[in-house]
Amino acid sequence: MFFQGEFSMADAATGAPQIQGTLPLYKKPEPLNAQLHKGKGLKYGDRPFDFLNETHFVPVTVGEFASAGGDYPIIFLGESKISVAVMGLQAGENLFVDSKTSEYAPFHYVPAFVRRYPFVGAVHTEEKDRFTVCVDTQSHLFSDKPDFEFFDADGKPTEFTQRAIEFVRRYESDVAVTQLFVDRMKELDMFEEQTTRFQPRDQAGNPVGEPQVVATYWGLSLKKLSELPSKTLEELRDNSYLGAIYAHVLSQARWEQIMARAAFRAGEVTSSSMSRPTMAPPPPEA
């Protein structure tokens, strides 16, 4: 999934492009082709986020940590330590997409991985620095009667497609930068296994039973960060890694909101009880 370089449309002169890694959301990515996809394009309709409503996490790049971390817990998964934004507590449920209307929760950051869909880049088998732009032809957005066509009458990419190509190029560049960040964190042994737990409470707010494990994942350790030599800390500061580390750590506070959303969807709490009480303003001076 991590690659960067020159992008192109489908080209028979080079090795067949390959999608690398596992791609959530995508069902059947195919290289964009002026002959095969003439007259086709995307139609967003009134349910543009249907593709996302069963996905409970999506990858995020290191440059998104500050923005995404304000709305979602950012964690790292698997041996590769892929950074993802958590959008639900169980597979098949996204707490930020309304299952009835397909509307995305307003005023929340939409990760670039989501905004890129249904486009994606694929590396060529013979030329590793060349990439072909693909589109998920089984996406509900893919249409024979599109609002935005892929190609014009001359078979050239439309302005819409050109913007999509540029977005994919920049995204894959950001993914490569993220991989460098993860590699450096591995070198510094910054990762540790972390667990998020939920304490059930009664209506009076008293604990009921034992805390329940919500999720186990990889996170970055503040303790290990504090033990790094000054020279290494300066390096992390100068290459902006330090800010990304703190953004990840601070994002763990979003677990509370995720659990509140899950409880609200399950009908266990009301919308009013999800809001934190605010401090009353001071009385006017006499």
UniProtKB/TrEMBL annotation:
User: The organism sits in which domain of life?
Assistant: Bacteria
Identify the InterPro entries for this entry. Answer: SapC
From the Swiss-Prot or TrEMBL record, give the protein name: SapC family protein
Tell me which species this is from: Glycocaulis alkaliphilus
